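Researcher: Checking consistency across runs. Here is YcgL domain-containing protein BTO23_02595 again:
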Amino acid sequence: MFCSVYKSTKKQGAYLYIEKKDDFTPVPKELMGMFGTPTMVMVVNLAGRTLASVDVEKVKTAIKEEGFFLQLPPPPENLLEKYKKDKAARKESE
């Protein structure tokens, strides 16, 4: 399965995978409004391939069922919570 990948101009790290190049008809208008003007990144063959940040099977399934797949960046790490957990772990090990 080939698909076209576009990056968002409004949300850093967001990518949109669609089956046909420049055919955004399956993508809801609200989503396109939040995504901004799509910038073409590449055309990729998903058959027998792994992707860096997302499960390729999820992408294939979403494209078949919904007509698109939206990849969002992971949420930012809460550094305060990480510090608290690390501090608690150090206290327990003492």
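Researcher: Does this match what you'd expect to see?
Model: One thing to look at in this run: Residues 26 and 67 are 5 Å apart (CA to CA).
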